[in-house]
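Recall that a protein's primary structure is simply its ordered list of amino acids. Everything else, from secondary elements to tertiary packing, is in principle encoded there. The following example makes that idea concrete.
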Amino acid sequence: MELIEIIGYIGALAIGVSLGLIGGGGSILAVPVLAYLFSVNEKVATAYSLFIVGTSSLVGGIKQHLKGYVDWRTAIVFGLPAIVGVTVIRHYVVPAMPDILFTTAGFEFTRRMAMFGLFAVLMIPAAFSMLKKQKEPLQDAPKKVSYKYSLILIEGLVVGAITGMIGAGGGFLIIPALVLLANVEMKVAIGTSLIIIAFKSLMGFFLGDALTMEIDWSFLAKFTSLSFLGIFIGSYLSNFIAGEKLKKGFGYFIFVMAIFIFYMEFFVKQEL
């Protein structure tokens, strides 16, 4: 095993540790770890990331369900269009995209640039969502959940499509949508979003990628197992380390990673 692969597996462990410590964000690093440390292409990186994001979110979602922070009806209402969106993208759109989308003035805009460029752009609001301090609700009385079905349908389809393109869960998009479009309390929105992310990511992987490409199940099992181990390590460490400060630092790290990905794909790749 080469040194860079060892670093990659350490990265898989770190993804889980961050999830266990701060409750989210770590899975967004799956794509860069897979792409730059294991040198897999954009289709495989985003596909494997969907599986890793989905399984880790499922673990987190079950934990939130046991605490009573999952609204299953809302998860279904929002999750179904999201599943449709991600499945269509992974099964039909991504396999049909050519390696080079277009060429202008000698500049080749590739499928990899489109997928990783969108990923880098969306990492920035994800970073800001981690830097923003969560406000605790002032009242204890539960809100009455109400659905704006047409907007939820559109939002679900859009979030599902984005997830399919970049291989990340999009919790920073789902949580505000649940609060604004379904009047869900913040804690419940966070727990419910994990269930939505889990099912749309896993369904997108199994109904899309698993049917259209060859999956290295051995590698995926090792990577995901290390992430799971990291979740338990992170959960244990969270008893001794303040999560809020770590979350802020991790937000800055994601912001730096977004710039790094953009630089690697749009400048370094063109020079090679």
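Strands lie at 100-104, 107-110. The CA atoms of residues 50 and 56 lie 10 Å apart.
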